[in-house]
Structures are given as structure tokens and as C-alpha cells.
Specification:
The protein is of the alpha/beta class. It has 15 helices and 18 strands. This is F-box domain-containing protein.
Length: about 525
């Protein structure tokens, strides 16, 4: 069929279907002149500028070419929705000079940005150090410049706060960035169109950078392996040495919803934190302060990744208390990193009892990537207390909307298979098994002793890392007692009406993960990836 015979609506539908297929979009742009503008809308939706040092740079590096393109074709700036700026430790003077020149030109032109990603951790593992694979060369076609930008991935590699595993990404100090660039970034962070902001692998970020008072559409904030310095005026402490009082945080009154300050704050819908303990507590104290310009009381999706080096969950509980009325998805990954820390689940348990609108709960308990002597035993001891105590707080009367519960465990070097079976049974009884004491005359129910505890529960998944024998022991523990009516065990879960209890092996504790929790919109910039 000739191209002219296709309805315009059908053409647009086909191109939108190919929006993530960069080679096909490039071919479409070179095939038909009237497809150029439509394909460029998708090709330039996500752009990554890599300013890392290149020993032998070519005459025109990708960031330079992109800057030239914006100046020659200003309409391209309207297509860019997500911008990733890759900077790294070890950049030389010429790199910083190039960074300043390009960003001072590009950032003011990009007035329609929905997401900004600053730092490291967004690059693909297979790309070269020069960044040539991220922003391809300019292709000229008659009077139209067709430039292809390979979009940056939306899911980031999980950072490891507090440790330096193989492939450790050296962080960059905020003061290392030239002052002119910092000013441009502060202006960009207050864009009227900005929806998501992500900062990764950076040190000494002033909390004033997160004031974000000029972002009326801001919904998501992602902080990965960052630390803070200084204090936001009237906004609490921003240093890393924070004396977090868990009991005081638990007794603090919720800030009034009808205050003048409340109407001026920016409500967040998504919050993802991958921080070491001092930085996490500094952020928690700042975010729950009455004068904080960010409003976390409306957060619907929260993901937390922390090393388990502390004896209190006061900071986590304070954040959960603030958004208890709105939180729908809660993902929490704790990593055992210190020997002898076994008592935290007893002294200050994680409190999810007030999360009445919770739909999805995902918990992960893993070893660090760098093995330490005794870490496996600590993991097992903490697992026996931590996860069951969290699940024990879930009740049908208050958590009736719960749809999914997922648990990831690293059982690589646990003591014995018997311990694993007992721990699995203890977890399972909180979720699926409830002995009905009011129906003593029902012999069949008394014999099985199980009922469906949560009517809306459709997915219950277990992700285990370890050898096959230990994984089998965990599966035996989960299946030790009968399942309620309507539930079944399955190697792979299937979408449908039946509730599924899934035991899925995963090769390593730090695998990219099967469970990614993102917002419902297709153009989401930041995603959860804690598993």
C-alpha cells in the first residue's frame, strides 16, 4: 500500500508503538520525509549527555553535537522530556570547561523537561567510556537534520551505600561541579514542567537544592548514594551526624493539613531512597520537619534501600507515619553489613500497622555483595525476627486492600535446612493461615485450620538466593500446611483471578530484580528497583 494511502492516525499509532525501538525509528525517519518530525518526538524524548573524561576525544563528542543541534534546530528542544547528565570523579579541567559551556547553552533551551537525572548510575554497562553509544552521530537528510539519541534507561543499577563492591562508582562532590553549572542546575530544578528528579552518587549536596519550591508538577524524587551538607534555612539539619530520637519521632503530632504552609509545599507521589544510615536519617529529619518545602504526606509509592548497620527504624517509621494515609506501595530492602547487630527488630520494629491503603508490600533481606565473616548467620537471625514481625502487623480489618506481598531472601549460607523450614512456616502463617476459633463445630475447618486471611491478596511471591537444597527447604516450609481455598503454588505466576504463592529462585542476591514497582504512567522517569 502506498504511504500516501495510510491514514495519518494509523501512521501515528504505528510510530507510537515503535517508540522504544530506536533502530526502527531511525529507519522510519530516513524512509519517509513526513515521518521525520513524528519520529524525532520519540528519538529525542530521552537524552543522555556523558561528560566523563575521554583520553583521546574525537573532534565532535556527542554532547557537543547535541548542543549544536539545539542551536540549529530549536524545535528539537520541545521533544526532550528526560535529560541525564553523567559526571564522574576524575574529570579534568577541559572536561569541566566543556561541561560548563554545553550546559549553559542547553539547559535554558530545554523548557519542557519532565525528568532530570544528575550523577552516575544511569549508563548502560555495555557502552564505551566515550559515551558515543548514547548520542549517535548527526544524519543529514535534505533540509532536515535527523539526529538519533539513544535514550537513557529508566531503571538504574542498584547502588550499595556504605560499601565498595566490585564496580564501585566513585561519587562526585557537589562542590566539584563548576559554580556556573550549579546555578543552571538550580534553575532547571525549579522548572515549571519538571515531574521527576534523580540525584545519584554525589556527596555534599545542600538541602537547599531540594527546596524545589518552583516545581508545581513535581511528583517524584530519587536519591541514590548521596550525602548532604549544610542546612536549609528554617528546614532542619542537613548534616550527616543526626541524633535521631525514634521515640520522639513516634510521638510527634502529624502536621496540620489546613495550614498555610501546607498549601505552599510541593506534594510528592513517589519517593525512592538508597542511602546509608547517616544520610537517610538526615533526610528523614528534614522531610518530616514542619518547614520542609516538600510534602511527603501524599506519597503513594515509596522504596527504601539501606544497609542494616543501626539499631532503630525511627527514621523509616517517621516517613511511613507521614504518608500513612496515602501510601499504596512500600518496598524495603535491608542489607546486613555489620556483625553483631541482631537486636534491632526487637528494640524498634518497622511499623506498617497504620498503612491502611497499602496495596503492595515488598520486603528484601540480603547480604552485601562483598562477603563478610558471620554475615550469613546475622542475616538468618535478623530474618527470623524482622520479616515475620512486619507481616504480623497486617490484619484484614485494617489492610483489606492488600493485593501483593513479596519477600526476597538470601539463604546462601544459612545454618540448616530445618531452620529455613521453621522460618518459612513462621512467615507463612501471618499471611495465609488463620485458625478460626469461632467455628469449633466445623470439623472440616478445624482440621485444616486455614482460611483466606486477605480477601484481595492475589500475589504472594518468594525470591530466594542460595543452592538448590536450601531453596527446596524453603519451599517445603512454605508448603508444610494446607493452602486456603483459591490459592495455589506455582513455579511462575500467571495473571488471573487465582491467588498465587510463588517460590522463585534468583541466582544472586544483587540480581537486577524481577519486581520493579513503577508509577502507572507510561512516561515515568524514575522507577523502583529494590530487588
Amino acid at each position: 500500500m502506498p504511504c500516501e494511502a495510510l491514514p495519518v492516525e494509523l501512521e501515528q499509532h504505528i510510530l507510537s508503538y515503535l517508540k522504544d525501538d530506536i533502530p526502527s525509528l531511525r529507519s522510519c525517519a530516513l524512509t519517509c520525509h513526513r515521518w521525520v518530525y513524528s519520529t524525532q518526538r520519540y528519538l529525542f524524548a530521552k537524552v543522555q549527555l556523558d561528560f566523563r573524561h575521554v583520553p583521546f576525544p574525537s573532534q565532535a563528542n556527542p554532547p557537543d553535537r547535541f548542543c549544536q543541534l539545539l542551536l540549529s534546530s530549536p524545535r528539537i528542544s520541545a521533544y526532550v522530556r528526560e535529560l541525564s547528565i553523567v559526571i564522574a570523579h576524575g574529570m579534568e579541567d577541559q572536561d569541566l570547561h566543556r561541561l560548563t559551556e554545553i550546559l549553559q547553552v542547553c539547559l535554558p533551551l530545554l523548557r519542557h523537561l519532565r525528568g532530570i537525572n544528575l550523577g552516575r548510575g544511569s549508563t548502560t554497562s555495555g557502552s564505551s567510556g566515550g559515551g558515543g553509544g548514547r548520542l549517535n552521530s548527526v544524519i543529514s537528510s535534505t533540509t532536515t537534520s535527523v539526529t538519533t539519541a539513544i535514550p537513557c534507561p529508566t531503571t538504574s543499577s542498584v547502588s550499595e551505600p556504605g560499601i565498595r563492591p566490585k564496580g564501585y562508582i566513585w561519587p562526585v562532590s557537589w562542590s566539584f561541579i563548576p559554580s556556573a553549572v550549579r546555578n543552571e542546575l538550580r534553575t532547571a530544578f525549579r522548572s515549571q514542567s519538571l515531574v521527576h528528579i534523580r540525584l545519584a552518587h554525589m556527596r555534599g549536596i545542600p538541602l537547599s537544592v531540594l527546596a524545589l519550591a518552583g516545581c508545581p508538577l513535581l511528583e517524584g524524587l530519587v536519591l541514590e548514594d548521596v550525602t548532604f551538607s549544610g542546612a536549609l534555612e528554617g528546614g532542619g539539619t542537613g548534616g550527616e551526624t543526626v541524633d535521631w530520637d525514634a521515640s520522639a519521632a513516634a510521638q510527634a503530632q502529624r502536621r496540620p493539613r489546613d495550614s498555610v504552609l501546607q498549601s505552599q509545599r510541593r506534594p510528592l507521589k513517589m519517593l525512592r531512597l538508597e542511602l546509608a544510615e547517616p544520610a537517610f536519617h538526615a533526610f528523614a529529619q528534614w522531610a518530616t520537619n514542619d518547614d520542609c518545602p516538600l510534602d511527603i504526606s501524599s506519597v503513594q509509592h515509596m522504596s527504601l534501600t539501606m544497609p542494616k548497620q543501626y539499631s532503630t527504624h525511627g527514621g523509616i517509621n517517621a516517613l511511613l507515619s507521614e504518608c500513612a494515609d496515602s501510601l499504596r506501595t512500600f518496598c524495603c530492602r535491608l542489607e546486613v553489613q555489620a556483625i553483631g547487630v541482631n537486636h534491632d527488630a526487637v528494640t524498634s520494629p518497622l511499623d506498617v500497622s497504620a498503612l491502611h491503603n497499602l496495596r503492595t508490600l515488598r520486603l528484601a533481606m540480603c547480604r552485601p555483595r562483598q562477603k563478610k565473616t558471620g554475615a550469613a548467620m546475622i542475616l538468618f537471625n535478623n530474618f527470623k525476627n524482622f520479616i515475620p514481625n512486619v507481616l504480623a502487623q497486617l490484619e484484614p480489618a485494617t489492610h483489606g486492600l492488600l493485593d501483593e506481598v513479596s519477600v526476597k531472601l538470601d539463604v546462601g549460607e544459612w545454618k540448616t535446612a530445618t531452620d529455613i523450614r521453621e522460618a518459612a512456616q513462621r512467615i507463612r502463617v501471618h499471611m495465609l493461615d488463620r485458625r478460626d476459633r469461632d467455628d469449633d463445630d466445623d470439623d472440616e475447618r478445624r482440621e485444616s485450620g486455614t482460611t483466606a486471611k486477605f480477601a484481595n491478596l492475589r500475589k504472594m511471591k518468594w525470591f530466594v538466593a542460595g543452592n538448590e537444597a536450601l531453596r527446596a527447604a524453603l519451599a517445603d516450609g512454605l508448603q508444610a500446611t494446607p493452602l486456603p481455598s483459591g490459592c495455589q503454588y506455582a513455579a511462575d505466576s500467571e495473571e488471573g483471578s487465582e491467588r498465587v504463592v510463588e517460590v522463585r529462585p534468583c541466582d544472586t542476591a544483587d540480581s537486577p530484580g524481577y519486581l520493579d514497582c513503577a508509577e502507572e504512567e507510561e512516561d515515568t522517569f524514575a522507577t523502583f528497583a529494590i530487588f
